Amino acid sequence: MDSLVRNLTTLGLTEYEARVYAALVGIGEGSARQVHEASAVPRPRVYDIAEGLAARGFITVRRGNPYVYIPAEPAVVIRHLKSAADAAATAAVQDLEALSLDARAKNSPIWYVQGEWSIRRHAESLAAGVTRDLAVVCLDYGEIGEFARLIADISRDHPVSVLLPNGKRGITKPLGDASLYAPKPFCTFFQENVFEKVYCAPISVDGAAFLLEYIFIADDRVCMIVYREDGVRNAVVITLPFITCVQRQFVNRMIATAERIAGPDEGL
Description:
Layout: H1 2-10, H2 15-27, H3 32-39, H4 43-55, E1 59-62, E2 68-71, H5 74-107, E3 110-114, H6 116-128, E4 134-138, H7 145-155, E5 160-163, E6 179-182, H8 188-199, E7 203-205, E8 208-218, E9 222-229, E10 232-238, H9 241-256, E11 259-261
Parallel strand pairs: 4-5, 5-6
Antiparallel strand pairs: 1-2, 3-10, 4-8, 6-11, 7-8, 8-9, 9-10
């Protein structure tokens, strides 16, 4: 009984709730006196514990003199508890991530992000902070779907420009009202030192290979760069104005000389 009670409390029941439910499963059904004897829960507490379990659908009550309590199927109860625990865990992670985002934004103008969940959360936070416009440089067309809804949602309220250095190919997810561009070389420096070295191939540094996937720039205040380092996906978020303003001006220059292309829902 003790290990069963521990497992049930881990899933979200109180100790008395676990003891009452386990006792009812063991005896099949019973009155408050019988539950008290089987569970060692004080008899006066059995009544309110049973009512609470009944309100959650974990037991049913046959009213009479005395009341008789009947347990729901264990598989149903465990599934409900597990679902509630999973939902609570997801909500807790989201709340903790939000706290982390706030703390990082206050304490540092540049920080690194690891893990798919954190990358998505930071992208969502960046998008939620857009007040003027959003610019996106996309090199990984195969993965644009993960950000397609975010881009489409922002494009309903703010101008969104998506630069596609690899040209007209591969995007299948609708991007809402976003404007899509295929950038063209606008100077020798750009072609040789940026396009060919950054956009067209991995960059090797001290034996590690860095491959750029996305650049998100919200207004000219926040920049998020998503990349792979030896195949492992990471990101860096920058709020330092000296960097974000220069990056945005560079992107604006790319847009000014780019070819406007049709969106995915226009037959890209």
